[in-house]
Amino acid sequence: MTQQPVSQAVIAPPAEAAIFLVVTVRAGHEDVVRDLLADVAGLTRAVGFRSKDGELRCVVGLGAELWPRLYDVAPPAHLHPFEAVQGAVHTAVATPGDILFHLRARHMDLCFELAQQLMARLDGAVDVEDEVHGFRYFDERDLLGFVDGTENPEGTAAEAAVHIGDEDAAFAGGSYVVVQKYLHDLVAWNALPVEAQERAIGRHKLSDIEMPDDVKPSNSHVALNTIVDENGVERQIMRDNMPFGNVGSGEFGTYFIGYAASPDVVEQMLRNMFVGKPPGNHDRILDFSTAVTGCLFFVPPADFLEDGPSASET
């Protein structure tokens, strides 16, 4: 009997705290990285054991350019470098990234300790391209004041949305993830009347109720992020976005992280947002939020990280 792959903890309740680490691997240090990847699950258990109710989790994603440096097997079918999306006004930039560590827990101390342990093991082997510490903001709201992640699928729908199946059997149980760091112009945003903010998002701010289709503007964030296939079925992703900020420097933003069984659904969302649907009808939220990073990663099953490719994959 073929053993079913064990997926990483992509599907999880909203966290109270998170750290997002994106690193690039220095040439000649691939063995150090492979050794660390095999131990991530054990490190997470060891740190998490110190707080039984802390719900510490760590998801690891690998980039397209790193893959052939680590493994002598063909990559997952849809793994490729993140492609920048150039619109007439706004751009979804592409930035370097070989590994994503997505740490989340009920308490920041757990995330921080695990991040320290990971980076101690990788000392001298990687360069940190981006590090963001996220936090829960009231009732799952972003710093724009709206609830984030309302449309996340649940149960079997979530499994189907984020986990690869028989379409790429060698990597069944894995996922793809796109990350982007958005910086908000809160001064300009907060100068808008609430009604204008609601039209930009496509939801009512207090109640979090989506506007009816005949009221919702075509350039609202919700309208442009609703992807429907040729059969009229909505294609879903799992968002685990977190707000972050630095009051002293005036830097405020949202770290977007979207998991999916195929990256094309997220890529279509980004084309809709940045190019517009139709072209020129870009996402109104981009007039207040600027994407400053962009990476695509593959999230292997947990046993792949621990053991590497199986004999059947080689």
In brief:
This protein has 314 residues and is an alpha+beta fold. It has 9 helices and 14 strands. The strands form 4 sheets. Strands 7, 10, 11, 12, 13 and 14 form a 6-stranded antiparallel β-sheet that branches.
Protein model, in words:
This protein is α+β, with helices and mostly antiparallel strands. The protein is 25% helix and 24% strand. It has helices at residues 30-48, 67-70, 108-121, 155-162, 186-190, 194-201, 221-224, 264-274, 302-307, and strands spanning 17-25, 57-62, 85-86, 91-92, 99-105, 126-135, 175-184, 227-228, 234-235, 238-239, 242-246, 251-260, 289-291, 295-299. The strands form four sheets. Strands 7, 10, 11, 12, 13 and 14 form a six-stranded antiparallel sheet that branches. Strand 3 and strand 4 (91-92) form a beta hairpin. Helix 1 (30-48) packs antiparallel against helix 3. The model has no long low-confidence stretch (mean pLDDT 95).
